[in-house]
Structures are given as structure tokens and as C-alpha cells.
Amino acid sequence: MRRRLSVVALTGAVLWSSGGAILAQDQNNPDVLRKELAETMSQLKAAQDRKNELANEYEKLKAQMAVMQKQFDDAQRAVANNAELNYSLRAERAAWNAFLDRDPRLRARWEIFLETPAVDLFGSDGAWYLDKPRSPSLFNSTTQPSTQSATQPATGIASQPATTQALPSAAAATTNPQ
């Protein structure tokens, strides 16, 4: 215990003796205080200037961010529009393939069309090579007037116009009420 007491007493004596020197250092010269004040004021002014610079830079970055956000929104709209268009084109392509699957001859003609350059699709006479051969019975028009004269007898029903075919039967129906 004695030892403790002596350590405390010794520590107190050291602190008391150096206390006068510490108090003497607090009384500075007014020129030194003005210099420190000016230095502190310049540091404060530099800090405020830097704060203003950062605020201006922040505003510029904020404006840039708004422009970039607008571009991002436009890009997102374009992506959504492209996704919609992509979906519709894929659906149309699937429908077209389903349509081609119904007729193998049509698919073959389509594949020839895709593989052949456009210049090679026309013959020397200007005929389209991919034209489907037409059956004469399907494409003879019954509504066009016949090229035969009225004095020649008709050779078949398909060679006469549709109006002349319908009139005799309609006239017969009105004259024979049975």
C-alpha cells in the first residue's frame, strides 16, 4: 500500500510542476493568434469553396442523370416495342409455316422461290417460272361472252356465257307452270 501511495504522490508532483509550463503556453502572442485566425479563415473559405464546387458538380451530375434516365426509358420503350414486333413476326412466321405444311407442292415452290435469285425467276419470254399450271376447266370463265358466232351451235356448256345458260332454264320454268 505504501508503494501505491508513493506512486500517486510522485505522479501528482510531476503533474503539478509541469502545470505551470502548460498554463504559460496558453498565453500566446497576438500576432501568432492573428496568423492562426487568418490560416483558419483561409481553410474555412477553401472548405466552403470546395463545398460549392461539389454542389455545382452534383447539380451537373443530376442533370446528366435525368438525361440518361430519359434515354434509358426510351431504350426500354424501344425494347418493349421490338419484343412486341418480334412476337408478332414469330407468330406470323409460325402461321405461314403451318399454311405451307398443308400443301407440300406449295412449300416446294416457296423454297424454290427463296433459293432462286429474282432475275432467274423469269423466262426469256417473260413468263414467271413458278406459276402453277392452270387447269383449263377451272379458269374458263362462264361470265365472258363466247367467241363463237350466234349462227354456230354451242359445243359445250362451258363455252357459253353463264347468263345464256341460266336464261333458257329460267324461261322454261316460267313457261311450264307444272
Overview of this protein structure:
With 178 residues, the chain is an all-alpha fold. It is 72% helix and 0% strand. The longest helix has 73 residues, at 30-102. The protein starts with a helix and ends with a helix.
Short recap of the structure:
The chain has about 180 residues and is an all-alpha fold. The protein has helices at about 1-25, 30-100, 105-115, 135-140, 160-175. The model is unreliable at about 155-178 (pLDDT under 50).
Supply the helix-strand structural class.
mainly alpha
Poorly predicted segments: 156-178
Rg: 53 Å
Largest sheet: none
Approximately how much helix is present in the residues? over 70%
Which shape, going by the Cα principal axes? elongated
Number of helices: 5
Beta-strand percentage range: under 5%
Number of strand segments: 0
Distance between the termini: 152 Å
Feature tags:
mainly alpha; 5 helices; elongated; disordered C terminus
Topology:
Blueprint: H1 2-26, H2 30-102, H3 104-115, H4 136-139, H5 162-175
